[in-house]
Every structure is written in C-alpha cells, then in structure tokens.
C-alpha cells in the first residue's frame, strides 16, 4: 500500500463562541457552528479541512454538513491523496448541494498533500507569496458601538474597515460616518448582503459621497438573482460593484462577467470549493474583473487556507478574512501566522495550512 493512501479519517463538530454577535442584514450569530474533516495517510500525516456553515446565506446546517462529511470520510478511506484531482471531481458531484462540506473535503486533501510534500499550501498555487492583509468587519449595530470598535481596531493597526449595511439608510449612514471619524484615513468597504434595491443603493452611495466618504468597493448591494440591479450600479457608479451571494457557481461567474453586470467578484471557498474557486479566479483575471477573497465565519484553519489560496495565486484587490478575530476561545493550534494587525504571515508557514484542531471528537 502506498504511503499516501488514506487509512484513517475523523469528523468533528466545531463550536466556538464569538466575542460579540456577528450581525448582518440577513441574520445574526453568537457562535460559530462549523464541522471538521481530518484524513490521515499511511505515512501518518494528517490533513484537515473546515466546513463553514452559514444557514442564513446558503441554507446549509451544521448537522447535515456533519453527516455528509461522515459519509465522505468513509468513502475516502483507501483513496490515494496523490490522486487528489480525480477525488476533487468526484467530490464535486457528491457534495454539489453541500458546498461547505465540499470545501472541507478538498481542503483536507490539499492540506495532507502539502504536508506530505513538506511545502506550505500556497506553493501549490504559486512560486512567490503575495502579502495578504485583511480588513476588519463593523457589524450592524449602534453608532456609538461602531465608533468604539473602529477606534480600538485602528489602534491595533487595521487600516481597512468593511462596514455591514442594510438596516436602514439613516442608521447605516450614521454608522459609516462614525467609523470614518474613529479611524480617519482608513479605507472603507461596504457590504449590503443584498439588502437594498439598485436605486436605493445608488442614492445611498451618493449621500455618502456628499459627506466625503468614497467606498473602495460595494459588495452585493442587491438581492441574489438581481443581475439587472448589479449591472445598473456597475454602470452608474465609478466604484467597483462586487458580487458575492450572486456567484455560487462557475456558471454564475461566467454569466455576470459576460454580461458585464459586475466589476468585482467575491471568491469564498465555502461556497465554491477549492477547484471551482480557482476557475472563478481565472475567469475574473481573464476579463480584468477585480477580485475579493472572502469567507464565512471560519477559524484560523479555513481562513489561513483562503489566505494561502489568495497569496499563491495573487491578483486579489480586496481581502476579507477577519473571522478569526471574532472568535472568543482558541479553536486551533499552530504557529502565529495571523498577526494582530490583520496581516497573514504567509512566509512563516512551513507545511500545509499551518493549523490543526484543538477540539476533541464530538459524536
């Protein structure tokens, strides 16, 4: 039997408390509720993947994802990680309706492969790591809280603030102005999570500009499926309009790019998986469409995987990989690869993703 054959697997629930509710226009979370898949080769090398579950966005649940990972774990036993591309394609079909589980499965295989090769994950995507610095998210909430939050994180060295909008235009405006006051000179991203219609979003951005605030990017300003609304804003605003929820597949990306509906695309491993994510990256680069590397609520494991994906490939204009900063208790062990100012220290990673779980098996 080859040393790269999978001989053991593990599936775990992953629960972690957040230091504050993560509130966006479509829902709120007090805890991270994900799932993990581990694969061990005959050589004794473990690879780990994280399934980031976002019920209010994708409709996936932690329980269903756990069960799908359990079935996948059994199927992977006896498979060779050297055949990872063949396994990736098989998993694409098997986990089509559970993308979080798909991402975790592909992540675990690549982590094991990179560790087997004694190389960091980013080396599977490029020859020189591109620096990665994340924004920090200001969730929907009181204006005073947004001010305090922005001031605190600005002191830590963060220079980019992604502000969640969609509560109502007046409170959204007040929160954005509070952030700009607390962190003068900082860059601002806006994320509507599909809460507005196109004309409301346009009027809102114009109001911001009148107040001296010009966002670097506006993300998913209209509902998923409103391609015309995205196109309207892309034509009317001289600001990148980024599709997130509207890009859940390669075909979604092809459609929006071909019809010139967007000027930026948010790639998330949890919604595309690693194979499709790379294809969307290639499509966007070919069409000179800007790129954002994003994530769901994820620990250091999935976040650092995404950071290495972005660092190896390069070409990302915006990075939103701040979820680990919202987690109250430590869930992973590994080196200090995520610095307190939002910089991912990619060069410090020696092999694989760089993190492994602390949590014991559950169920």
Layout: helices, strands, pairs:
Elements: E1 6-24, E2 27-41, E3 46-51, H1 55-58, H2 62-76, H3 84-94, H4 99-116, E4 132-133, E5 136-138, H5 143-155, E6 160-164, H6 169-182, E7 187-191, H7 198-210, E8 217-219, H8 227-236, E9 241-243, H9 250-258, E10 264-268, H10 269-286, E11 290-294, H11 300-313, E12 318-319, E13 332-334, E14 343-344, E15 355-357
Parallel strand pairs: 5-6, 6-7, 7-8, 8-9, 9-10, 10-11, 11-12
Antiparallel strand pairs: 1-2, 2-3, 4-14, 13-15
Overview of the structural elements:
This protein has 11 helices and 15 strands. By secondary structure, it is an alpha/beta fold. It has helices spanning 55-58, 62-76, 84-94, 99-116, 143-155, 169-182, 198-210, 227-236, 250-258, 269-286, 300-313; strands spanning 6-24, 27-41, 46-51, 132-133, 136-138, 160-164, 187-191, 217-219, 241-243, 264-268, 290-294, 318-319, 332-334, 343-344, 355-357. The model has no long low-confidence stretch (mean pLDDT 95). It has 2 domains: 6-119, Enolase-like, domain 1, CATH 3.30.390.10; 123-357, Enolase-like C-terminal domain (TIM Barrel), CATH 3.20.20.120. The strands form 4 sheets. Strands 5-6-7-8-9-10-11-12 form an 8-stranded parallel sheet. A 3-stranded antiparallel sheet has the order 1-2-3. Strands 4-14 form a two-stranded antiparallel ribbon. Strand 2 (27-41) and strand 3 (46-51) form a beta hairpin.
